[in-house]
Amino acid sequence: MKRLFRDCKKSGMPGVRARSQIKLCVMSACLLGFIGITLLATGSLFGITAGSLLCTVPALAFTLPEGVEFTETEKKGYLALGNHLTECFKQYETGKITKDEALKVMDDKLKEWAEKNGISAEKIEKMSEALKKQGMALQEMKDRSVSAMPGGLKGLFLKNFDAIKKAVKERRQETFKANPDTIDAALLENRAAITTTTGATLTENNGEDSFLYMKRRDRQYIEDIADISVVAEVPETLTFEEEGDETGAIAIIGENGLKPQLRLKLVKNKVESQKAAGFIVVTEEMMKWRSRAWSAIQRLFRDKVMRDFRNLLTTSLIGNASAYVATPLDGTITVPTNFDAIIAAILQLEMLNFEPDTLVINPADKWKLAMTTTNNGMFILPYIQQGGQFKLLGLQVITTNKVAAGNFLIGEAGIWKVERENPTFRTGLVNDDLIHNRMTIVGEIFFLSYVPSNNAGGFIMGVFDDIKSALEV
């Protein structure tokens, strides 16, 4: 019978079967308990059977109460009845008979037993009390088994199994709600405490977006201006030749006339290679167990190396750019605008025989230019090509926050030369990396960067206010 109470906690058919057996035990206890009471009160066999079917106290076997004298004949009669009822339970438990069949057999046996045996009132009363005590003890066992039912979805399913089964048979929907009073308060507190940085409660079924969302950064424009080529390997030193000073000029001469001498000069220049490099340190556990995170870190490191390399080139370009000096437009405009300042910078470059084609400005200054009006209130709108490309005075316009508001960079693209290798990434152990399960990752780029001296001055870093002050009458 221990197995019976253990199985009543199970889900599915084993649990249903065990609970049905307990119900049968309850009914049998009622039959036995009310025998004495009914006989004492009415003596009606129909009343004995009917009253016993209403009882809910479980009984697994019938035992004689202590402190009561029984004759041998009475003992044999009681024990025979108890053995018969117990045998009925066993047959039902093994599936040999159904619950209804077991109840009918017990009812018939009780009628037969009542006709053949006589019982005194004292014995009947004590038997009833003993049966009730047995029933109360077994009821406590049943209550403990029910209270041990697991909570959550499983407990809710077991508790409402019969109703669910009925709903499935009838092909209808049924809703069951858990009682909030039965939820463990500690469990609720733990769930509330485990949250992500965004405040979303963690769940057991998590999806993950594989896309790496990178930060928004200022547009890199160096590759739009410089002539950059990627080579397999840059030399340690690169030499190049430039045109030097010349003397003499050809002339028209007469017959047997003296021809003028021309002198041309070549100047050999050289540039040393440079290396831009950096490193990161990662743990072996990261590389072993955090494959996606490690992949993202490698991507960020590669991006960081290239971004910093471009920043170094940009800084070098700005450092080598010329300032606005002077043009014939100085002191000729009553109320100069930003358009006028750009035109003055273009004029200075053209006076030096450059062909400016690229303008780099801050977004704020770009849209100030778009809102500029003439003296009569007409907008001087820049030309916008198909696709939204902003064109101004025939220049390619690059908008970036890497140029501070109020400044602009203008010049001839391609006069600055850059040769570089592809980035190289290497791993190794540095100092005590080995005993700390760490790896050092080095990223480096070898490159050459130079502006031939004959192209010096081909870019101007201008300041709008300074140039407008020079232009103002």
| Strands in their spatial order, largest beta sheet | 6-7-8-5-9-13
> What's the alpha carbon Rg, rounded to whole Å?
50 Å
Largest sheet: 6 strands, mixed
What fraction strand?
A: 15-25%
In short:
This protein has 473 residues and is α+β, with helices and mostly antiparallel strands. It contains 15 helices and 13 strands.
Topology:
Layout: H1 2-7, H2 12-41, H3 45-52, H4 72-93, H5 99-116, H6 121-147, H7 152-159, H8 161-170, H9 185-193, H10 222-225, E1 227-230, E2 237-243, E3 266-272, E4 274-283, H11 284-289, H12 291-320, H13 338-351, E5 358-361, H14 363-370, E6 383-384, E7 390-392, E8 395-399, E9 407-411, E10 417-420, E11 424-428, E12 438-450, E13 459-463, H15 464-471
Write structural notes for this entry:
The protein has 473 residues and is an alpha+beta fold. It has helices at residues 2-7, 12-41, 45-52, 72-93, 99-116, 121-147, 152-159, 161-170, 185-193, 222-225, 284-289, 291-320, 338-351, 363-370, 464-471, and strands at 227-230, 237-243, 266-272, 274-283, 358-361, 383-384, 390-392, 395-399, 407-411, 417-420, 424-428, 438-450, 459-463. The protein has a six-stranded mixed β-sheet. Strands 1, 4, 10, 11 and 12 form a five-stranded mixed β-sheet that branches. Strand 6 and strand 7 (390-392) form a beta hairpin. Helix 2 packs antiparallel against helix 3 (45-52), helix 2 (12-41) runs antiparallel to helix 4 and helix 2 packs antiparallel against helix 6 (121-147). The longest helix has 30 residues, at 12-41. The N and C termini lie far apart (112 Å). The model is unreliable at 39-60, 141-149 and 183-194 (pLDDT under 50).
